[in-house]
């Protein structure tokens, strides 16, 4: 589990194709790796990756074909800057929102504008994800926890304050770029609970007991 508060911007030192999978070597920048061990998770541009090799200034992780197909890693190259965050601990401040590191898909940056000192972006996600995106709700963009400031159809607007821009890769985004997105975790689970309950109700055998039957049988006066 993560918070979407980025701890460091690193870069890809090596991208090794292994069939449909990818093995990455990530230079971790200022990320403190002193408490990281093999098997720990580090969110890399919003994707929860497991550390399989550890160096003093970076780590190695494997990406499955399933993850490659849903994220921008399919076209990342050596030198690509990536947002990094270590998994939360019981004492971590939850400064962003609950982020699983399980990316839902890729959104396209439609527009970038300066608004005072802030940067405004309009993004277009896959249409099927639009139902999870709400005005003033939370969303994760390349691992960064952000607030949705406007929604039009399935498209949405974000406002990036200078501190967030300067501490993440978002400062370099421009129209036409692609980003990994993870929708709100609670919204996904609520939808599943609602649809599952409806499906179970439809599948349940229908009772033959009616008010008329109860009256004929003397149960109703």
From TrEMBL:
UniProt entry keywords in alphabetical sequence: Repeat, Riboflavin biosynthesis, Transferase
Function: Catalyzes the dismutation of two molecules of 6,7-dimethyl-8-ribityllumazine, resulting in the formation of riboflavin and 5-amino-6-(D-ribitylamino)uracil.
Gene Ontology molecular functions: riboflavin synthase activity
Name of the protein described by the UniProt record: Riboflavin synthase
Coiled-coil regions listed in the entry: none
PROSITE patterns: LUMAZINE_BIND (PS51177)
BP GO terms, sorted: riboflavin biosynthetic process
Source organism (scientific name): Shewanella fidelis
EC number(s) from the headed UniProt entry: 2.5.1.9
Assembly description: Homotrimer.
Keyword hit for Repeat: yes
Transmembrane segments: none
């Amino acid at each position: 589990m993560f918070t979407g508060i980025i701890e460091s911007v690193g870069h890809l030192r090596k991208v090794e194709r292994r069939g449909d999978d990818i093995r990455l070597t990530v230079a971790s920048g200022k990320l403190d790796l002193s408490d990281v061990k093999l098997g720990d998770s580090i969110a890399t541009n919003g994707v929860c990756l497991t550390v399989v090799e550890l160096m003093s200034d970076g780590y190695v992780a494997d990406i499955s074909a399933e993850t490659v197909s849903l994220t921008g890693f399919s076209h990342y190259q050596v030198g690509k800057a990536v947002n990094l965050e270590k998994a939360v601990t019981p004492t971590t401040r939850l400064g962003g929102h609950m982020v699983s590191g399980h990316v839902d898909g890729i959104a396209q940056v439609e527009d970038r504008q300066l608004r005072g000192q802030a940067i405004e972006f309009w993004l277009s996600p896959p249409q099927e994800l639009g139902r999870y995106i709400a005005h003033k709700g939370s969303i994760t963009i390349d691992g960064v926890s952000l607030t949705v400031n406007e929604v039009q159809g399935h498209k949405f607007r974000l406002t990036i304050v200078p501190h967030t821009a300067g501490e993440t890769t978002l400062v370099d985004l421009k129209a036409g770029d692609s980003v990994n997105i993870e929708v709100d975790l609670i919204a996904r689970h609520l939808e599943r609970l609602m649809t599952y309950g409806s499906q179970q109700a439809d599948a349940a055998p229908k009772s033959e007991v009616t008010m008329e039957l109860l009256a004929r049988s003397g149960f109703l006066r």
